[in-house]
Amino acid sequence: MPLQPKASGSIHGSPLRRAHRARQRDDGVVGQDPGTDRYADARRRMVEVDLAGRDIVDPRVLAAMQRVPRHLFVNDAQVGQAYEDRALPIGREQTISQPYIVAFTAQALAVAPGDRILEVGTGSGYAAAVLAEMGAAVVTVERDPDLASTARSRLDALGYSQVEVVRGDGSTGRPERAPFDAITVAAAAPSVPEPLVTQLRVGGRLVVPVGDRRSGQNLFRVVRTGEGNEVEDLLPVTFVPLVGRAGWPDPQTGPRRGALRRNHPR
After folding, report:
1. In a 3-state reduction of DSSP, which class is residue 77?
2. Which of 2, 3, 239, 240 has the maximum number of C-beta atoms within 10 A of its C-beta?
3. pTM listed for this prediction
């Protein structure tokens, strides 16, 4: 399928630039007030051309992408590029993912209202907001304390009360909160992290990029079944590395005991 394979983990922490008025719908999902959103047309073009114009067909994904104000999740200097279909650098060697990849992942997760979702790699909070717009309750884990704090403040300001931001090593998940209906990982692991698979309910879905930038990365979907796991290779991507006990070693501290180092998904 035609695609732009260059995507990245959504890790970002710039402050809110201005007050943004959100409206709470009767169903509890946060939406944008068209009367105060001057970026609505740009966002609509992004959805129609870059998402629906390709292979994003889930109407709930398209509606969520239409409502979330991506311009409030990027740096000041990049506001004018917020609705271009590309990843944007946001400092600290991190990026906010290309909108197509955020939508593709949400579609691959088959999110249903009321789903409990674990997100590994909060970054700016943009992808978590999209999942929340689809009616999910999201636990999102960020290893960087500054990014976690900023994302929490941003999501709270926009009214996403169903998103819980947690500081920690997301590569090993949150076993005390399991099982999850779906898990999404916004950074590339050396292999499918086994701790995340075990935290899915039977029938649960994990979407995770696997590989490194030199040898290439692919986005995989793992469905946990009663008799094992179903693994599907979805598309080539480029993400920042997943650092943690079940990911890559921290470049500042070196390898960690017990870190997984397999090169291929299970």
Report:
1. helix
2. 239
3. 0.83
| Class of residue 21 by CB neighbours under 10 A (exposed 0-12, middle 13-18, buried 19+) | exposed
Strand-pair partners of 80:
none
Q: How far apart are CA 255 and CA 153, in angstroms?
A: 32
Tens digits of residue pLDDT in 131-170? 999 999 999 999 999 889 989 999 999 999 999 999 999 9
Q: What percent of the chain has pLDDT over 90?
A: 71
Strand partners, 185: 120
pLDDT in tens, 172-189: 999 999 999 999 999 999
Running DSSP on this structure, what letter comes out for residue 18?
A: S
Domains and CATH numbers, the chain: 22-237 (3.40.50.150)
Q: Of 8, 10, 14, 97, which residue is the catalytic one?
A: 97
Side-chain half-sphere of 221: how many Cα atoms within 13 Å? 15
Backbone angles phi, psi at 245, to 5 degrees: -60, -35
Confirm whether 14 is a catalytic residue.
Answer: no
Q: Is the peptide bond before 190 cis (omega within 30 degrees of 0)?
A: no
